[in-house]
Write the structure tokens for this entry.
Amino acid sequence: MEKKSLFPVVNGLLHGGDYNPEQWLDRPDILEEDIRMMKKAGMNSATLGVFSWSVYEPFEGEYNFKWLEDIIDNLYKNGIYTILATPSGARPAWLDEKYPEAMRVDCYGHRNHHGARHNHCMSSPVYREKVSNIIHRLAERVGKHSGVIMWHISNEFGGECYCPLCISRFQNYLADKFDNDISKLNHAWWNTFWSHNYNRFDQIEPPFINGETTSMGLSLEWKRFTTWNMNDYMKSEIKLLKNLTPEIPVTTNFMQFYDELDYNVMADEIDVISWDSYPHLHNDYESLCKTMTNNSFYHAVMRSMKKEKPFMMMESAPGLVNWALYNKLKRPGIHKLFSMQAVACGSDTVQYFQWRKGRGSFEQYHGAVVDHLGKDDTRIFKEVEELGASLKKISKTAGTIIEAKAAILYDWDNKWAIGNMKGLSENTKNYDIVCTDFYNNFLRLGIEVDVIASDRDFIHYNIIVAPMLYMLRPGVADRLKAFVNKGGQLLATYLTGYVDIDQLCYLGGFPGDGLGELFGVISEEIDTLYPSDSNSAEFKDGSSGSIKDYAEILRVNEAKVLATYGHDFYKGTPVVTANTYGKGTAYYVGARISDNKIHDILIEMAEKTNTEHKKLPFGIEYHKRTANNENYEFYLNHTEDVLTVENVTGINLLNGKDVDGILELGKYETAVIEF
Ligand code: GLA
Ligand code: ZN
């Protein structure tokens, strides 16, 4: 694998963040300080112009870019590159006043008032035209500047629009999808139910909250359409930029746990994946270790969308955030640990929101590298500075990637379908948590794992886990069979293969679409447990695992039974099975079983396929980045204890020390071992 540096002009990793100099144009002294302090903090990038439209174009057709040009110039002269945003994330007042159709309509059918941000109609031609105009001017003015290394499209795309224009686009989208044949849609959505049949596509309304919220098909297609329409909007910006400055890569910043857009679809349109990582550190409901490993799952989700190159952590909080229920300070040492985690997981950047706290308005108390105090000797500044120095020490890792032999299947529309379905319990469906827990089980074994959509290639993997793959995309069942047939190890759980992509249930037994043959089991019923209920899985070797939330009652055909239920009226019936299929094995885990047993099954799967795994002390996160025959192993200590890891050899780039066998890591310490 060749090293794939995201920014060839930058020698190493990017360290930077959102910079809003337009808030300080009347304070040249502060702008000058910014440059001095950025250099001191070891920063080599700044993200400009995310919300600058009303300064760029204070009145329609009157432009003001000189300040931007000066700032980009000045940054560049000081070794700081610019990531330049398109300003479409927030609109100037004049625009909404003159063209109210740019404002979104909510799920009651009410047009928004002007204000806040991230709330334009994706379909509005006039909005697209105004955006196109400002992007043209921006790109012409500064797009060719040597300091500009990337376009940051808009900001954190999200939300929906229920305006007449979006509705009519939705209707066209459906007509297209169902070959202009309303009977196909009626069948796919099972519309004879409750007299839901439509006569024409133009009768179909989106799922207004006071309208049709009970049609599974409608709800799912509306979500798919919203992704399609958002993507269409994003593509309109990208197309412009590719014409104006073809050599500059584009990205848009994705959000953590944002459910409403299928990022896999949008990922195909951008050059680099970037995302904003804001885990709830130091909360009162889980250990720091858990928060960190959950965050690692999201790095993996993002990394895996373009796993052939590094990704970017576009935003993170250098200190606290301002929007949590309780805005707790980041404890000393955590900033470095958290930032190193991003790099360990394959990010070539550590970037912040925000460089400097503003004096006023909504985010005036959001954490920043520079506080209202304005000094470079604050705790936060010093931690950022220390990190900057560390990032320089590991600059060789830039351009390397993670090569995983295991994958977790994770589909946004599967998540939507599980969310839509009635049955089970709304409190415990927990698709994301279940996928994250599987990821964490791999992490404990030091096995790198991609988190991929089910229609991506399976060719790279020895092991695939498909948690709660309720909805099967076309062809997935056959591809899973082929994967196992060739020697792959597959694990699926309760709630696999109940419905097709229209959410129509498979007849003849779950898992459907032929998966019953692969697993050698049929699930006949699923029991939803109350939080106070529990069951157990009793394994043949005498070990057992606890069961909560969901338990399927299985009919076993040819599969081998590994465990049976310990309680209830289905006591003694199978809960975990393994089926040999061709050269591989298909495991079926029919209930939500505790991690200790999942762990054992994953080890078995790794051993059968010679997939490298490790014995890591609890609290150590491990990753390996590689390319050009260079190898960098990252060990992160998520705990306050001194921990030791065995069998580590190489040089620790962070302290220059040779490690020969035992690696000792202090509280929250990271080691980056080159070998
Ligand atoms: C998001 C936005 C930023 C800022 C931060 C605050 O990530 O992109 O503009 O509002 O949240 O955490
Ligand atoms: Zn709209």
